[in-house]
Amino acid sequence: MLAITIDTQQGPITIGTTYVPPRIEYLNFIDFHSLLHRQNPTYMIGDINAKHTTLGHTSNNTRGKHLHSLITRDKCIHIGPYFPTLFTHRSATSPDIALQNTNAFHNIHLKPGPITPSDHIPIIITISANPIQIPILPRPSFHNANWNAYKETLSQHNMPMKQNPTLEEIDTYLQNWTQHIHDASNIAIPTITHRIIPGIKPNHETLIIQTQYKHTLDYICSYGPSLALNRHLTSLRTQLQTIYKQQYAQTWNQLIQSLKPKEDPKLFWTSVKRMIGSNSNIQTSPYLKHNNTQLDTPQEKEPIFRQHWQDIFTDQDHEDFDTEHINNINAHMNNIKHQTTPHNTGDINRLDPLHFPEITFEELTQTLKTFQQKAPGPTGITTLHLKHLPRNMITHLLYIFNMAISAGYFPNTLKHAIMIFLPKANTSQHMVQNYRPISLLDIHGKLLDKILNIRLTNHLTIHDHYNTRQHGFRKNRGTHTALATLYETLAINTAQHYTTDIILRDVSKAFDKVWHSGLIYKLTQINLHSLFTRILSNYLTNRRASIRIGTYIGPPISLHTGVPQGACLSPTLYSFYTHDMPPPLPNTDYIAFADDITQITSGKYPPKYAAHQTKHAIQQINTFENKWKIRTNINKFKIIPISRIKTTDIFIHNTHFPYTRQGTALGLNFTSHGFNTQISKRRAIALHNLHKLLQIFTFITKHETHIISYIC
User: Fold this and answer.
1) What CATH number did the domain enclosing 74 receive?
2) Rounded-to-integer distance, Cα 502 and Cα 55, Å
3) Is residue 38 part of a domain?
4) pLDDT (tens digit, 9 = 90+) per residue, 348-375?
5) I need a labelling partner for 476 at 20 to 30 A (CA). Which of 30, 123, 523, 644 fits?
6) By three-state DSSP, how is residue 476 classified?
């Protein structure tokens, strides 16, 4: 362990570092105590190789238990990092630990450093008595926007409203409308490039004592020490530390109250993640591995991501698919292609006041009111831009939307998405397949999207085109109703001593691999207005996405399958696409939530017959999926026997489906014998979250501690 003490205007601070090799199973408590027991603020960063669930790991080791004991006995406070610092072929972890003692009061920010020959990512820690500014990607500063100037600039535009515009003219009108908003935004809304991390800010009294401390220290350095001067210096140092601790406590207590954790837990947790740095700008590993080559820069990584996702969004057949059924659907769709393509021009007279009316001004504005501020799409237009539009701009957008729906056309300019990536938990971040995409769509496109979704949802509800066993994307339904149904079913079967099997299945790339022809075919079978069928069909076609790695955006790829991620219509379309899943066989049932299907087989029969019944239930869903180009993720497929040990192997088409003893249904962890694993895992997550909160809210009052414990 190495440490150095530095004199600052707020008094001396100590910064230390250490390395505990994996072969050493314990921490040197003497060194840790001597360093962290100092009266001045002390910070220590090192590769301790400690694992503990409260630090965000999935397991504990001896070093982690030792460190946890230091933290729980108030010897030190864990301050991060909350981003991975070691990437392996299996996962991303944080063996590097940053600690501070209980006398520390500074503002702190941790961020990943540049790539080095080491296998660890360096940590850059900023320690300051002033609020810390960190660089961010340039974005509009809406708090400082001049909305009057924004509206005045836009109100001067009088845009053409042709009676029967062509599809190209509709796209041009929308592009011009977008450009006007960009121009007005550049005039009235400033851009920010830095963000201030919440923290203490020295007041006038603190600055006076700091100045006195500095002058006294300079005098001692120039003319030598004396007993009186040393006592005066110590007194000033004590005053500074006391004042800073008071300000620290006051700042964080005020922050907790302003965030209103009980009223808006989501906003609270978002703010906490920003404070501790777990919302890091790292979206991918510092490097990728491809064909035994290390790729470091965004320009090198992007083509690998692009090729991977281009393959996913390509319409491909599988050997298990029902080729005859698929060919029949394709032939039928070719015969009625004229019914699913847009008209060449818009014509308001085509709209039906009863079955497919034009969009009204009130419908547009009321839908816009339901939108929250979210990340913008390719054009950069946000919800706030739209909510501050003058009436003439809203009227012109309304005209564009009505011309589009009257042609059965979803504008091409709204079909482009930006894809960013977040790493999947507990996987190697060196592999491109271990990243989850997030698609950013234009907000004004999602506005038209939501209006269409409301109309489609009403039609599906009125004509009962829903699967009664589907709990996802349904009003008054959710994971709570799905899990309650599962629990009650298991409880009843267990009470009646039934032989029960649970089959957990998850569709592979469900939203990304929806077969367009199959979905459009089903839409043509439910008596929608012809314009509605046309626009929904056109909504799916000619979609594109560009991949963003860091600040680099690559060329677009075509999306030949799937429903657009992040769009309002997508959950409804996917739910409708699978709504005709056949009813369960006798002595079986299933519970669906989006693309997760939990099958249940039960009855008073021996385990051998239970396997036979389970096999038939699996084959029934397989047959439906093969007709509609749906594939179950075999890696997540599990069969779990309930309250019994004896099982019989299941073979389907020479494929062995073994029984397993534990699984997860909609986030609920369970085993063959109960739900105890769920309790222990949720407790570990709650303790981890509480640990993170107490790390930043160090000096809060007892009342605020109760609030924090409540929301964990």
Assistant:
1) 3.60.10.10
2) 33
3) yes
4) 999 999 999 999 999 999 999 999 988 9
5) 523
6) coil
